[in-house]
Amino acid sequence: MNKDQVKGAVKDAAGKVQEKTGEVIGSDEQQAKGLAKQAEGKVQKGYGDAKEAVKDATKR
């Protein structure tokens, strides 16, 4: 696991918390920010996954 995978997973989790907090307090802005953070985290994790796949493929 590389740093992009970890950072992406953390951003995704933080975005979920932010989204749920926005739901509880009734803030559409917080919900939107949470969704955006989740998307950013998923992209970063995907990038990390791709890097890891290339690294694994070159070891063979």
From TrEMBL:
Domain CsbD-like: 4-56
Lineage top rank: taxon: Bacteria
Compositional bias segments (type: Basic and acidic residues): 39-60
InterPro entries: CsbD, YjbJ_sf
SUPFAM superfamilies for this protein: Hypothetical protein YjbJ (SSF69047)
Residue ranges of the region described as Disordered: 20-60
Family from the record: Belongs to the UPF0337 (CsbD) family.
Name recorded for this polypeptide: Uncharacterized protein YjbJ (UPF0337 family)
